[in-house]
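## Example pair
The file below holds two records. Each record gives the amino-acid sequence first, followed by its structure token line.
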Amino acid sequence: MGTNLSTILRGQARKYGERLAVEKRLSGEWQGISWREYYESARAVGLGLYGLGVRKGDRVSLLAQNRLEWVESDMGIIGIGAVTIPIYTTLPAHEVGYIISNSESKVYIAEDKVALQKALDVRDECPSLEKIVVIDTDGCDMSADIVMSYEDLKGLGRDLLRREPGLFDRLTDEIEPEDLATIVYTSGTTGPPKGAMISHSNVLAVIDALDEMKWADDTDVLVAFLPLSHVFQRVAGHFFAMYVGIYSHYTESFDTVVEDIQSKKPTILLAVPRVCEKVYAKILGQAKEQPQWKQSVFNWAVGVGAEVSKLMERKKPIPTILNLKYKVAYKMVFEKLRQALGGRTRWMVASGAPLARDIADFFNAAGIFLIEGYGMTECSAPATLNKLDNYKFGTAGTPLSCNEVRIADDGEVLIKGGNIIRGYWKMPEETKNAFTDDGWLMSGDIGTIDQDGFLTITDRKKDLIITAGGKNIAPQNIEGHFKQNPLFEQFVVIGDAKKYLVALVNINLDEAARLAREANLTFATPEELLEREDFKAIVDKFVEERNSHLAQYETIKYYHIAKHVFSEETGELTPSLKVKRKVVMEKHKDIVESMYPAE
């Protein structure tokens, strides 16, 4: 495998040479580099940084959208023994400044003038910062001594290569497995962000465990749209793909995902449950727009597919009659989903939150296996996964070979293994509090392990709701239950220390418009429906229907339709599209209080 991540890229460049390695769609055009070009560009970046004074163990911050320069920079930084500090593009200047300052980054690589300005705005707060490198210099003021272009950085590296041809290889070979490769800052909803220290050996442990499963080889094609700043995309879609020799294609934006998938016809997709939920909701919405007879055919096909999927999961043979029905159902319904995802997708990862059984069965019936799993930044991404030949939908799978998982007496998931971080950067107290006395990482999640070793996550330990009546309630389960209805885009359950549960809701505007037309409501825009009592009466019926499947203490007594759409940009969602519950509650504090009148 190699002793560090940089030796992997060097080996693949020698093995594959001019074969395409990575491609990015930019301004509508695909731009790609071969394995040789990938390595040479990474080497130029690394040596350029070395020429600026960056040495082994020094930190370099990187803020950019997914692009060729992102992966080149990452492998260049890592290749000289330095440490990459990825920063989300959505973070405001003060948070960017905190990360640069806390990590003591010597260099900050910025995508464009917006990313450049974020650093300039907080420059006085970042005494360690010696140079800002800008990838796209259009519209940038490059006159300041601290600023230089990405091309000039690479030019500096190439000049150094001519003078010392073996320097980069020597620096790579000096990297030890336990050396830091990256520090990934986790969301700081209850305090400042914490820098999770991930070593080369942590990532290599994950790569080795994934490779044992034989899920992919160098004929596979990946279309990636999750941000490289996220540890899941970086470890699975960048490092593991590099190790296997996968063809990687980065979409232009989230808006072009479907178009880019259909263009590149991937065999593998890395997603999160919310993406699968949105795809499923769109398909259901389209089906409900059809004549009644077509809706009946659709519902019949979904039922057949679910029956087949359940037999496949239990490794049971499919009876002849059912198999014939399934072939018809596949042609009429499921093949459309498969073609929408390029026609070749074998599996998708959908980790990070519970996934409804209906959705897993639907994709599975279309020949696209949804791999549910569980992990966190502190595990260098995954800790458990379902396997292609051993899975249970609705669970997070079994532990990877590189780690163990057990459940504490209070239900918390504990993890130990080669992929677990050594701690948080410059935070000894937080590091100590993250581990048990015998060295197990305390995940903060509540879960169970069944007799076959499959982990099920029920909720965040801190998110558990204990009602005034003493009932322990896992809000994620209820939220997932409501989001099975395509009308509910987001559903945030609230009720800790209260007599009953309430919810803040984002409505799917496409589904809202469809339901309004069905009810003969006239409207100019779907947004106006959110204010109207006649539309709220429709929503009331769906809330009552979902409530009917819950225990009395789990039902939603009141809800409020939030006109503002929760998003990563406005701070309510994480990059993997999970709700930041405390942020949402704080922003809507007055509304929440109004749903608890004089208890």
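Second record, same layout:
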Amino acid sequence: MRPLVPLARAASALALLAALPALADDLEAVSKIAAVVVYPDAASVTRVAEIDLPQGATTLIFRGLPAGLDPASLRVAGQAVAALAIGAVETRATPAKTTPSTELEAQIKALRAERESVQVTIDALDGKKQMMRRYGEASPEKLGEGKPLEVGQWAAAWDAVGAGLAKVNEELRLANAQAREIDEKIAAAESARQRAAPRVAPRRDVAIALEADAATKATVRLTYNVAGASWKASYDARLDTSASATKPALEFVRRAAVTQRTGEDWTDVELSVSTTRANRGVAAPEVQPVRLYFWEAPVPVAMARPAARAGAAQDMAGGKMMEAAPAAPAPAAAPPPPPKPAVEQQATLEAGAFQASFKAPGRMSVPADGAQKSFRVSARALTPDLSVKASPLMEETAYLEAKIVNDEEAPLLPGDVAVFRDGGFVGTGRVGLVAPGDSTTLGFGADDRVKVTRVPVRRKENEPTWLGQTRTEIREFKTTVKNLHAFPVRATIVDQIPFTENSAIVVEQLPATTAPTEKQVGDKRGVMAWAWDLQPNEQKEVRLAYRMKWPADRDVVFETMPVQRTQR
């Protein structure tokens, strides 16, 4: 009975192992991209995998994800009929590799086969040539049938051998030339193969530890942020000032243009664009203290020995159709309804307190080759505040402007604006960042019914007669603006006088100057503006006069100082 004890123990051990959960097995996920949220500088991608999970522990692997994904952004969610636990998430780098070109490989294979065929021809011709030489080297008595050739036949034999060798040599020359040409083609193709062999970019695999209480079907969602994607805002501004319009109306259309080079195509996905910048940072930068001190010349350092310098240098290295029943003759067909204009779909806004996102209508595909995908985000019918503005110092033309308020819950991001007026394309402008509730001004081209002229009234200079005298120059200009519209117009004229930062130069505004409405426009020193509501056919004048003084022995120059604005 003693041998039965080990058998019983073995049976118990097998039963215990069967009751324990199995060791983790790798299961490759077959996933697809379901949704993408594109930020101005990155994208958040959500992949979905439908899997059959066995009971126990399983390692689910998402293979071939972009190398540029941020491991810190990985998030996993899932659902299943049985209880499902999600464990550790691991990223694994897959190195780049070279993939040979199938077309070049086939070309090289065909060339090598052709080269072998030519070599067979060369070998046959060479054998034929050697045989003819041996025949020519035989003595005359061996060439006849048991008796030597007669002397009269020797010339014919020599001609026959010579002609045969000449023909074989020519055929060999052509075959060798063909072989050399094929060898050159093979060498060129092999060189091209080395140069053109595409390198498969490095990828990442993501391994997720899962454990199920029982075999079940599960849905796993993997979300990650990836670089190489962006979207830009663009706008259409359509102003209607025609006589048919009871009052000026402005349609403002927001568009989004998405591009991506993440290394994976987004095919038939739910696409959204967000105003949040994913890579801008999470906190304001720290301001560091700055110390001001007197500059001191550096203390000279003795040159190191050559050996020491050398050492230092080294260390830096359906439905069915129904048949119509017979009926009486039908009456004359009614005219078809007029065609309806196509309606452009637009995105849905999802706004929060600190960000806004727009979900594109339907599903979209964006390839990873950098091609641009554009769609309409929103449209607003606005009542603009119209005015004209002129800078006669630069150009004697009044330009129509429209001030609008961003009444959406999402900010207007910086972008280009395609401007249309009364159905005609005017040009392309630019809009900066406009927060919700804030306003911006758009230009709509020249207004030919507002006439602007600027003429110099006087220019007076003194001629210094002795050393140390101050030189003085007086300049005065007159600007005239006239409204030729049949309705009132708000007009603004912008002009300037020079400013100085040198105490030896004095610039004075003279009393003849018309008092400006705005003494300084924005951050521009010396730039001022005058604004009025001009009635039909009303005309206004602006006078600008100033005096400049500087030492007579010095020359002065005028320099345009552009205002430095922060790019947002």
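Notes on the second record: The chain is about 20% helix and 40% strand. Helices lie at 4-19, 102-137, 140-143, 154-196, 306-315.
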